[in-house]
Design goal:
Elements lengths: L9 H10 L6 H11 L4 E4 L6 H13 L16 E4 L3 H14 L7 E4 L6 H9 L3 E4 L1 H9 L10 E4 L2 H6 L3 H10 L5 E6 L4 H10 L4 E4 L6 H4 E7 L5 H11 L5 E5 L2 H13 L4 E4 L5 H12 L5 E5 H4 L9 E4 L6 H8 L9 E7 L4 H11 L5 E3 L4 H15 L4 H6 L62 E2 L1
Parallel strand pairs: 1-6, 1-7, 2-4, 2-5, 3-4, 5-6, 8-13, 8-14, 9-11, 9-12, 10-11, 12-13
Antiparallel strand pairs: 7-15
Helix pairs in contact: 2-3, 3-4, 6-8, 11-17, 15-16
The protein binds adenosine monophosphate (AMP).
Adenosine monophosphate binds next to helix 3.
Length: about 475
């Protein structure tokens, strides 16, 4: 199938050709015709599936009749609104709109918090046809009367699950109340929690359901590996891994933003070029950290789950979970950063005894055990780690280092093909902890801050289907 088969107008076909896309991804093949028919959409898809073009291209086509080069703000009311949870995702969506819409005279802009309002206000007052926004900053602009949402025809909620996780529901409700009731609504979410279903019921009218697995399901391309290590050893193990595997670009995940800066600083002290990205940094600092990492000026980007959402790095070879996330779905989001664009990737988790239950949850979600080794088991790694520890006292001279045998791959892990950390049997189907008692593991259920969420779509487990 080609983009021409989807009845895209020539301006959009030229733009996608310029982007180098030869054919639509599965979500584009499904979403584009449905959006062009002005249907509401409930899309279950993650970043990496091509969903941005899936909603942006038909949105641009529906707005194309309004394209004009009049300087009058009245000729450019906001007709399409895209809401995203993070500034990074907002900026990426906005870039996509500009790229795909470059042959159309439609104005678009992006507004998010953490930067000055006046420049945004000026652009909004001049009139924009398409507005990408994070919810809080959009409401600030509404309050200042720099923008009116009374002529919105299409609203898109991107990564809706993450918006709810971040506590944006009250803001979203306020924004929806400002929109005309006659409108087209598109909701995209990586997961289908009860809250998302409730929001979808309120927001969408007989939506077309579109479910697609990741273009590259995590299980297919990503090699998972666990290093069992005491928490106190994690820093040394991490530094050793980066050096001994000669990693050039690695995204390291932590749970808490306050720990990101510290870890980045400690790595820099070890001579490893690291930088941190999290929501407490200014927008300029975040953009700088991201571009340093993307362009290879820093080897390590330390991030929280929220800060890393929407970050799109082609061919990222390594993701390291310095700490496991509290929800197994976040593990899938994290490793979704590697193994993209058909390239293999590695997801390495440093797991201390306290995290074994989190690991068991992840393995149940993946429906398989992750090969693991303790740092002590991996003799070569341990030796390398000891050497790393020594090297902190005395860095060997260059010629000494060059005589050392090069350590590349970690020694073969001891696979435990059938049993999870808590003894869960993978030959049985996965049922969330709230499911029937027969499918729950023998050990006590894990206490997690958030509820379980159905996840089959992330794992390529859904059969794609459209429902009208
Ligand atoms: P998204 O899921 O929207 O974040 O897109 C993920 C990546 O896929 C982006 O880098 C897009 O540029 C790329 N992409 C989107 N559509 C296509 C396509 N039809 N062919 C090839 N790459 C695409």
């Amino acid at each position: 199938m080609s983009f021409a088969d989807l009845n895209l107008i020539p301006e959009l076909q030229r733009a996608v050709a310029d982007e180098g896309y030869s054919q639509p991804t599965p979500i584009q093949a499904k979403a584009i015709p449905a959006v062009l028919e002005r249907r509401d959409i409930m899309g279950c898809a993650q970043t990496g599936t091509g969903k941005t073009a899936g909603f942006t291209l038909p949105m641009l086509q529906l707005l194309a009749p309004y394209a004009n080069s009049s300087p009058s703000p009245a000729r450019h009311p906001v007709r399409a609104l895209v809401l995203t949870p993070t500034r990074e995702l907002a900026a990426q969506v906005s870039d996509s709109i500009k790229a795909y819409g470059k042959f159309l005279k439609l104005r678009s802009t992006v507004v998010y918090g953490g930067v000055d309002m006046p420049p945004q206000t000026k652009i909004l007052r001049e009139g924009v046809d398409i507005l990408v926004a994070t919810p809080g900053r959009l409401l600030d602009h509404v309050q200042q009367k720099s923008v009116s949402l009374s002529q919105v025809e299409i609203v898109v909620m991107d990564e809706a699950d993450r918006m709810l996780d971040m506590g944006f529901l009250p803001d979203i409700r306020r924004i929806l109340a400002l929109l005309p009731t006659q409108r087209q609504s598109l909701l995209f979410s990586a997961t289908f929690s009860e809250e998302i279903k409730k929001l979808a019921n309120q927001m969408l009218r007989s939506p077309t359901l579109i479910e697609v697995a990741r273009r590259n399901a995590p299980a297919d391309l990503v090699k998972h590996q666990v290093f069992e290590t005491p928490a106190s050893r994690k820093h040394a193990v991490l530094a050793n891994l980066i050096r001994s595997r000669e990693m050039k670009q690695v995204l390291v995940f932590l749970r808490m933003k306050r720990d990101c800066n510290k870890l980045a600083r400690d790595l820099v002290r070890d001579g490893i070029n690291a930088t941190a990205i999290h929501s407490d940094r200014t927008q300029a600092e975040r953009e700088q950290a991201l571009s340093d990492f993307k362009e290879g000026r820093s080897t390590v980007l330390v991030a929280t789950d929220i800060a890393a959402r929407g970050i799109d790095i082609e061919e990222l070879p390594f993701v390291i979970n310095y700490e496991l996330p509290y929800t197994p779905e976040d593990y899938v989001h994290r490793i979704g950063r590697t193994g993209r664009a058909g390239m293999p990737g590695e997801a390495i988790s440093l797991v201390c005894p306290d995290e074994m239950r989190l690991l068991a949850d992840i393995e149940k979600l993946l429906k398989r055990a992750i090969p693991r080794q303790s740092v002590e088991e991996g003799a070569a790694d341990l030796a390398a780690e000891r050497e790393y520890d020594r090297s902190r006292e005395r860095r060997p001279r260059r010629e000494e280092r060059e005589q050392e045998p090069r350590r590349t791959a970690a020694p073969a892990a001891k696979p435990r093909p059938q049993l999870a950390a808590d003894g869960f049997d993978f030959s049985k189907p996965y049922v969330p902890a709230s499911g029937p008692a027969t499918a729950t593991p023998a050990s006590a259920p894990v206490q997690r801050p958030r509820g379980n969420r159905p996840q089959a779509a992330l794992l390529g487990g859904f059969v794609s289907r459209d429902k009208k």
